[in-house]
């Protein structure tokens, strides 16, 4: 017998169990589960009776849309939580990695030689570059810049003072041939020779000419080369083509030149710097003075590259690239290093040269003496 719908019309071709979905069963009769589809096709064996999890055309929209909404929300929350975890853990991990790398840099105890802060507003970092061969592998790509000849021990090849006062930075070069009194022996000699008695003795020699020192950093040249390579090289502006057969320097064109670690070392260590001026090769006649100016240009370019590094993994990994060739004063902490890097990020240190006069000693040594005008420069560095 044909069933009738609520309006009294007959529903042909269907049993009461196959009536249109949504029609309420007679009072007192429990509803039977609808196992078939609205179009009469059988339910597939792997489909649920309610259609949940089935495709849109095979399941009822009310069930599917609700299910989709319920599934999307946890997925969105998972993505958000993942992003938060990355934003928090990556910086922390990078910071911790940098700390670990920094902690491997050897320290030297120079605290007794450092100046008292007093009322000074500026901070002076003594930066020393040495020609120590310690830890240098002959296969190192930068070794060729300085492994020629037999040299024992370590000598200072670069002595600079980085003066930081607020947003003002100055980089002063101290000529290695400057004639001073050795604090350890009381004898007159070149300032670079005072390093033979240790870093603390060199600090005292620098302070003896009136420049207070607050922190100490030392690096040998192989580590300078590694650091240059670690930041992708440095750019030096050459006024003329230049060569030095002794250091390996070979600059074919004037203007900005991008140097790798080996090329940068050949530039900073050049003692026979020769330029092509007006078609003629001319040896730099300024000797140690010109060399300190090149070293200052090198160090300024290197600091800009290091401080301008934006990749946190590369930045925090820089201490590890130095190997055993770097040393720091016992008072120079990881936070000091971060603060210095932040200060130098957009800084352009003003070059400062000490006015000096060349002379020859009674023993025949060519040295440099401070001129009276040097007192004004030294006063500025002591503030």
What percentage of the residues does DSSP assign to strands (E)? 15-25%
Could you name the ranges where pLDDT drops below 50 across 5 or more consecutive residues?
A: 13-22, 47-54, 56-61, 145-152
- Please identify which CATH superfamily we are dealing with: LCP protein
The strand order across the widest sheet is 3-16-9-4-5-6-17
Number of domain modules: 1
* Secondary structure tally: strands: 19
Largest sheet: 7 strands, mixed
Secondary-structure element string? EEHEEEEEEHEHEEEEHEEHHHEHEEEH
By CATH reckoning, the class would read Alpha Beta
Level-2 CATH architecture? 3-Layer(aba) Sandwich
How does the overall form come out from the CA principal axes? globular
Helix content: 25-40%
CATH T-level topology: Aminopeptidase
- Taking all Cα atoms into account, the compactness measure Rg is 38 Å
- The pLDDT mean sits at 76
Tally of alpha and pi helices: 9
Task: Explain what you see.
The protein starts with a strand and ends with a helix. The protein has nine helices and 19 strands. Strands 3-16-9-4-5-6-17 form a seven-stranded mixed β-sheet. A four-stranded antiparallel β-sheet has the order 12-11-14-15, covered by helices on one side. By secondary structure, the chain is an alpha+beta fold. Helix 3 (221-230) packs across helix 4 (261-268) and helix 5 (288-307) crosses helix 8. InterPro entries: LytR/CpsA/Psr_CW_biosynth, LytR_CpsA_psr. Residues 155-306 form the Cell envelope-related transcriptional attenuator domain. Keywords: Membrane, Transmembrane, Transmembrane helix.
